[in-house]
Amino acid sequence: MPSLPLLWPAAPQQTRVLYLARFAPDDPIYEVKPEGMTSGYAEYHFRIYEELKSIGYRVASSSKPYAALVAGGNADFVFSLLNRMPIRNPELLVPAICAYLRIPVLGAPPNIRALAEDKYLSKLAFAARGLPVAPGRVYRPGAAPEPPEFAGPYFVKDRFGAASEGVTEASLQESWDGAAAVVRDFHAAGKEVLVERFCPGIDVTVPVLGHDPYLVLGHVAPRSDKVGGILTADLKTDDRLGNEVIGLDPCTVAAIEDDVRTVWDAFGPIDYFRLDYRWDPATGRRWLIEMNICCYLGKRGSIGLAGARLGYDRTQIVAHVVEYSLARQRHGQGHERWVI
């Protein structure tokens, strides 16, 4: 049985939820959409819609981000999974609109969403709070990729983006010449680049729910068959190898608990999120790589797997994050006023 109860709505029919996702149903056709170029997301987005309805919320659904613009007066809460639209920093659009309209929205305030989605600024913020991070440097299009202040091996990735977008096996490079070539490839696509010192070991992700004040669900390792155990875009989107809940040594567990507390104290409250690490089992060293807000809620993802281990099903988790989010924002929508 779960060690802590999750929130459940007392009168869900009184809450109007606007559900936004790339493959969310659009009126009048409420069924799974064609998959397109992604793997499993059409089914995933439809099942989240079904679970919101099964909880008892009054759910309106749209795949169009501009639906948020007319949510004022028509919705009590916006449940948005629109994180990968074809615009720069798409994760911020819906939260910013909802902040302007004073409608509670899933995740965190826009400024915290912006910090989390910028892998370099979040690295600086983590380091300022004393958390262990790998050294990194940003390379913007138009500038020659000069060697960083740290030695390799190097890991090259998009400064922004989700689901390891743009990460391939070429992202791991032993020499700077190789890394610079990958940087130029990103620049050719108009992307800002973050180059980090590669951290040995495996990926470990730590899913967290906002609770009282928060609840760490466990420790999950995404499987990889790539050199260095890296997670590439194809592994993230196809999820052909999946994830597994793992045990960590007591010292690492305690250190991660301290990390979560530090992140929460600085950036919380947050409805739900993951802290993504590289962890070296041989040495016990850990490096905090990034924080993901409004991350994947699939049953085979880290939140679903770790939650199930504690006895929570996905419907309970979805209901909890909605109710927690509503409570978090209940008293924070009224104090902003025009200054000029």
TrEMBL record:
Matches recorded under SUPFAM superfamilies: Glutathione synthetase ATP-binding domain-like
Transmembrane region(s): none
Keyword annotations from UniProtKB, A to Z: ATP-binding, Nucleotide-binding
Domain ATP-grasp: 123-323
Record PROSITE patterns: ATP_GRASP
A molecular-function term among this protein's GO annotations: metal ion binding
InterPro entries: ATP-grasp
Protein name: ATP-grasp domain-containing protein
Naturally occurring in which organism (per UniProt): Rhodopila globiformis (Rhodopseudomonas globiformis)
